[in-house]
Design goal:
mainly alpha, two-stranded antiparallel ribbon, 15 helices, globular
């Protein structure tokens, strides 16, 4: 038990050290492409961690998170493009709207279970995608293109350097991962895991499964919307195909599954694999890279699901356990030899 605790403590120390050193990255190297990759790794990790709350810890496989992501993106985008405001009030409106929409659409969907729930969330993405395509108030199929605004934190826009975006992505990363870390040890986190393990059993012990799932979905949607608000500021445009598509929803799910659903590190591990694979193949092979990265990623997902459903973190955990057992056996053998 002591060894396990020390190993966990060491991992957390290493993770905290990386976060502490991350702000020094722009000072160490100013490679624009590398900064772009790091920003996307943190953004995808945040997106997947938002999904992980309901999908990993709660065990409810939702393919509809692109809707909440898109609402956050459109909230910030409309504040800037339509009303000439900074993105902050629009991002806040998007976060609140996403949480409300999540509760409204999840309440009837939670009456379904398993693959029926997943199919229902697929349909929701398509409904919102079609609605935004013909909705003139949000720009319709053309979307929203940013005009030139003053650089800086007030407008959350930088043109000549990615340093500002890097620090914003790092702040977003620390915020979302900090929230999930807090939930892991909080009563609500235990309720979520209890519902995942067995809803009927959890209810028999006094857990209100409906309230727990709705609360988790609202929080998950709000954090996804926050990621969407950052995404639109980084890309300086938004349209339904970019943010409200099944492709985007699948990224939320698959990145988490690859890294390890229901774990804090899983979304970061999955993003650290997918994003460099995606960006470096595109940089090397141009348009062809967009297909190569998906082929490799698909093969990785198949391999992970077949070999270890707990993802890469599960594989690492299994290796650590095997090494621990081997070390214990060797120590036991040495003790017997001495005796």
């Amino acid at each position: 038990m002591n060894k396990t605790f020390r190993r966990t403590d060491l991992l957390w120390l290493a993770f905290t050290g990386l976060i502490a050193l991350a702000p020094l990255v722009p000072a160490i190297g100013s490679n624009s492409f590398l900064m772009h990759v790091l920003i996307l790794v943190m953004l995808y990790a945040c997106m997947s961690q938002a999904w992980n709350i309901i999908g990993g810890y709660g065990g409810q496989t939702s393919f509809g998170h692109a809707v909440f992501f898109g609402i956050g993106a459109y909230g910030a985008g409309m504040a800037v493009v339509t009303y000439g405001l900074p993105p902050w009030p629009g991002a806040l409106a998007g976060i609140v709207s996403a949480a409300v929409v999540a509760v409204l659409i999840s309440y009837p969907c939670f009456k379904l279970s398993g693959h029926y729930f997943a199919i229902a969330t697929f349909a929701i993405v398509e409904i919102f995608n079609r609605m935004f395509l013909v909705w003139d108030w949000v720009g319709g199929a053309l979307g929203l293109d940013y005009m030139i605004v003053e650089e800086g934190f007030a407008n959350l826009v930088w043109y000549d350097s990615k340093t500002g975006y890097f620090y914003c992505a790092l702040t977003l990363f620390a915020l979302i991962f900090g929230i999930v870390r807090f939930l892991e040890g909080h009563r609500f986190g235990y309720y979520l895991r209890a519902v995942r393990a067995g809803q009927e059993t959890a209810e028999s012990l006094g857990v209100n499964s409906t309230a727990v799932k709705l609360s988790a979905m609202a929080l998950s949607a709000a954090l996804a919307a926050l990621c969407g608000a950052f995404f639109v500021q980084y890309n300086l445009r938004v349209d339904p195909a970019m943010v409200m598509s099944l492709d985007m929803s699948m990224k939320f799910v698959l990145v988490t599954i690859l890294g390890g659903a229901g774990t804090l590190a899983g979304p970061l591990v999955g993003a650290a694999v997918l994003v460099p694979l995606q960006e470096f193949t595109r940089a090397k092979w141009g348009g062809l890279g967009g297909g190569v990265d998906l082929i490799i990623f698909g093969l990785l997902i198949i391999l992970i699901v077949v070999k270890q459903p707990a993802g890469i973190t599960g594989i690492v955990r299994d290796i650590a356990k095997r090494r621990g057992r081997k070390a214990a056996a060797e120590k036991g053998g040495a003790s017997l030899g001495t005796a």
